[in-house]
Design a protein that fits this description.
Layout lengths: L2 H4 L1 H10 L7 H9 L7 H10 L4 H10 L11 E6 L2 H5 L2 H12 L12 E6 L11 E5 L2 E5 L4 H18 L1
Parallel strand pairs: 1-2
Antiparallel strand pairs: 1-3, 3-4
Helix pairs in contact: 3-4, 4-5
The structure holds FE2/S2 (inorganic) cluster (FES).
Amino acid sequence: MSIAEKYPEEVKAIFTKYPVKRSAVMPMLYLAQREEGFITKAGMAEIATLLDLDVTEVASIVGFYSLYHDEKAGKYRMQVCNDLPCALRGADKFLEALCGNLGVKVGETTPDGLVTVEAVMCLAACDKAPMFQMQDGDKVTYYENMTVDRTMELVEALKKSGVEAK
Ligand code: FES
């Protein structure tokens, strides 16, 4: 089902708010991502058609912002900044060790489907590396001055809370 068919009221409200069609791209992407947590190629194509944009323009926006996704992920997205200032504070080593502990490569999801580890560009906390943002649906939490041990404790706590919630 298309985005316009699935969310007719929301699409109408967005178009009313942004009379210049192309200005509606961000809220439309947000809407497209609502259900699955990522935007499909078909979703991007539909948004491009609705807003008179090229699909590549829409895809480049999805690729640029760390809050938009074009692939399915685990329950949590752990987005580690390894941009240059953070790399100078050990972000690369942190990311490598973290992936080793979790048994995944960057971009992969833990076998239990809990955490997807991603490397992202600057998250505006350059003096607090190693740092990452954790996305849980719409909720984003920053973790700064992290160690691998503390991050693993966090993952364990998330695992536990998921089990307890069932
Ligand atoms: S470079 Fe990592 S937060 Fe800025």
